[in-house]
Specification:
mainly alpha, rod-shaped, two-stranded antiparallel sheet, 3-stranded antiparallel β-sheet, single chain
């Protein structure tokens, strides 16, 4: 039955070719294992191996020594004269040089009176002689030659080969009493064997000194024995997070192929650990093994567990997860990047920690080369201009400028002129000197790109709007920095403008009445309480400005919904207002509705006048955002007592409750009849103070 691959001890010792202290340490560990196995057979099982020598010991791939060749294994029972079994029948299989004096004489009566370990203790002595001499034992008399034996082992060696069977040393005492087995290699392996029984303090102390200790031990033994034990302890949970650093340090001594076989599978499984300390350790050292991970392993096994760090309550873990993605992104599929990673990054750009928000901008700039063309168009400008450049934290704005410069080849001329340059020019008057200097440099860079694009008109005859002829694959923008990228910096003018636009209603008033009878009626803005309240309620709902995103980040979500789809583009107010003015100039001028001199305005004129709904805010924006409003003279203030004509009802979608109309004749002092606020008609209007007589009713 084959249980595992092994190699004969004699051949393995020649292959290792250990010398000096390293040789003695490894031999001590091997003899410790053999003595422990022989003690188990003799003391616990009451069995005699009968043929302990170099030929009966094999070595596993982990360099452990094990006993085999149980050809003459026999049960020992001193009270049973028939005990001995195969040893009595097949003692000829044992070499004469390995037989003890009583066995060579076939004195079975003496053997039964002797301790159960007597024959195997003699065999241990023969094994010690052969491994230290480096030669096979040829005759029993050679056992007297002890010149090559360690002095710490010599007394025990002599007791194992005692001439009297009853006085030979028990193998169990050889393990416990010999100073030879007390060395660093044996103690290290024994500690790892019983790691589950150690408390956390002992474990941390051991793993802290393990790296320096391993440098003093035989390198082959550490890589073949200590490293697999350490990996197994981490994988099965007996080791703490402090064992991760020794594992990576010892793993760095391996070749690439051996590292992928012995260490990498364990590291991959550790990403699923709930131990926050292990997760932090993996992220801190991911640069040491991240390049060895295959694309399939990263996409299917590592990233699903690593992504939990993006939403962890610990800011330190969120930042480490963010930085780790710079190494792993090249191994992710486009579906994972667009469908999962960008969603997490959009949330981190509104994180409460400034360092995380800044580093998110840096990461997006660094991974731009790994995004497809459509994703870059949707993500980069929104992430850098709408958020980074408008942040209140100076390093965040600097990171946004640097990210734009590093990804400049991905933008066409139209995007540069309409979206990037307007955002950069604002920062040339920033309060931070570093931001100002970077803004000037970036502005000059993008202006040169636009000039180069339009300069091709003279040679090619057409404008080339595409500048992304090459990419900056993996080009680093700048080192990780502290930053903040939040949407809190939205200007007060923007919110005031949105409030005014959505809360416009119309009413009529009389202004600029001239003696020639020319009348001009203007529409003025009045904010109604119900609309304003609605606007305040809607604006108070918290939003991160990136559109709706599912909290569970399910894999079934559409890959395009990464948080940048609904990003609002902030345009410069001057060009937009100018375009409205130009549009207004192109509209035909209409004469204002004329007011009849018969104390009322026709219903047709009223309907025409009040038929403009407030929801269509295009014309009102032209008035609201008038670039000349700051220097224009205020309109004359006229105060007229509001009156309403009888029988007048306002028609149209504005639904003003009670239209108030003014008769021109009443203003000019002519006799007219007007209707007051109440129902019914009143008499002719009288000037001056009047006493009003009212009954008690």
């Amino acid at each position: 039955m084959v249980t595992e691959p092994v190699m004969p001890l004699a051949e393995k010792l020649k292959e290792l070719n250990l010398e000096g202290t390293h040789r003695d340490e490894y031999y001590a560990w091997g003899l410790h294992q053999i003595a422990k196995a022989v003690s188990f057979l003799n003391n616990d099982c009451k069995l005699v191996h009968g043929n302990i020598c170099v030929a009966s010991v094999v070595v596993t791939p982990n360099l452990d020594w094990k006993i085999h060749a149980f050809d003459v294994l026999s049960e020992f029972d001193s009270s049973n004269p028939d005990s001995g079994g195969p040893m009595l029948q097949y003692d000829w299989l044992i070499g004469s040089q390995y037989k003890s004096m009583e066995l060579s004489k076939s004195d079975w009566a003496l053997i039964r009176k002797s301790p159960v370990w007597a024959i195997d203790s003699w065999g241990l002595g023969c094994l010690i002689y052969e491994i230290f001499s480096g030669a096979k034992l040829s005759k029993t008399e050679d056992l007297r030659n002890t010149a090559f034996l360690p002095k710490t082992l010599l007394p025990d060696y002599q007791r194992l080969l005692g001439s009297t069977p009853s006085r030979r040393m028990n193998p169990s005492k050889l393990i416990n009493n010999s100073e030879f087995f007390q060395n660093k290699l044996v103690e290290t392996i024994q500690f790892l064997d019983i790691l589950n029984l150690k408390d956390s303090v002992e474990k941390d102390a051991f793993f802290r000194k393990l790296v320096s200790l391993a440098e003093q031990l035989p390198r082959q033994i550490v890589l073949a024995k200590v490293l697999p034990m350490l990996a197994a302890a981490l994988e099965f949970g007996s080791a703490s997070a402090s064992a991760l650093n020794p594992l990576l340090k010892l793993g760095s001594w391996l070749s690439v192929d051996d590292f992928n076989v012995k260490v990498l599978p364990t590291l991959t499984k550790l990403f699923a650990s709930n131990d926050r300390g292990i997760r932090v350790g993996l992220l801190q050292h991911i640069d040491q093994f991240g390049s060895s991970l295959s694309s399939q392993v990263v996409d299917e096994q590592v990233f699903p567990h690593l992504a939990n760090g993006f939403s962890d309550t610990s800011a330190f873990l969120r930042e480490l997860t963010l930085k780790a993605m710079l190494i792993l992104v090249p191994k992710l599929s486009q579906r994972t990047i667009s469908g999962s990673l960008l969603k997490y990054l959009s949330k981190l750009q509104v994180d409460e920690e400034p360092a995380i928000r800044t580093n998110t901008t840096i990461l997006i700039g660094n991974i731009a080369a790994y995004l497809n063309e459509a994703t870059r168009k949707r993500v980069l400008i929104n992430a850098f201009t709408v958020r980074a450049l408008r942040d209140g934290f100076a390093p965040a704005r600097s990171a946004g400028i640097m990210a734009l410069s590093a990804t400049s080849l991905y933008y066409d001329i139209t995007e540069i002129g309409t979206r990037i340059l307007p955002s950069l020019v604002v920062l040339t008057v920033d309060g931070d000197s570093d931001v100002r200097s970077k803004a000037f440099e970036a502005t000059e860079r993008f202006l040169n790109l636009v000039k180069q694009g339009f300069g091709q008109v003279e040679t090619d005859g057409e404008v080339s709007t595409s500048l992304s002829s090459t990419n900056t694959a993996g080009a680093s923008i700048l080192g990780w920095a502290m930053s903040s990228l939040t949407m809190k910096g939205k200007t007060a003018e923007s919110s005031a403008l949105s409030t005014n636009i959505t809360s416009l209603t119309v009413t009529n008033s009389t202004e600029n009445i001239t003696a020639a009878g020319a009348h001009e009626i203007k529409v003025s803005k009045v904010q109604t309480d119900n609309v304003s309240t609605k606007n305040i309620t809607e604006s108070s709902v918290p939003s991160n400005g990136w559109g709706d995103m599912d909290e569970d980040n399910s894999a079934d979500d559409d890959v395009d919904k990464d948080g940048w789809d609904d990003m609002e583009s902030f345009e410069s107010p001057v060009p937009s207002a100018l375009s409205r003015i130009q549009a207004a100039q192109q509209r035909p001028v209409q004469a204002p509705p004329r007011v009849s001199s018969t104390n009322s305005v026709s219903s047709a004129e009223e309907e025409t006048f009040f038929s403009k709904p407030p929801g269509n805010s295009g014309d009102y924006l032209a008035q609201d955002d008038d670039p000349w409003a700051a220097i224009a003279a205020p309109p004359p203030s006229t105060t007229v007592k509001p009156l309403s004509l009888s029988g007048s009802r306002v028609a149209g979608p504005t639904r003003v409750r009670q239209a108030q109309h003014v008769s021109i004749d009443s203003v000019l002092g002519k006799k007219s009849e007007v209707s007051g606020r109440g129902r019914g008609r009143a008499g002719p209007m009288k000037l001056g103070a009047q006493r009003i007589n009212r009954s008690s009713d």
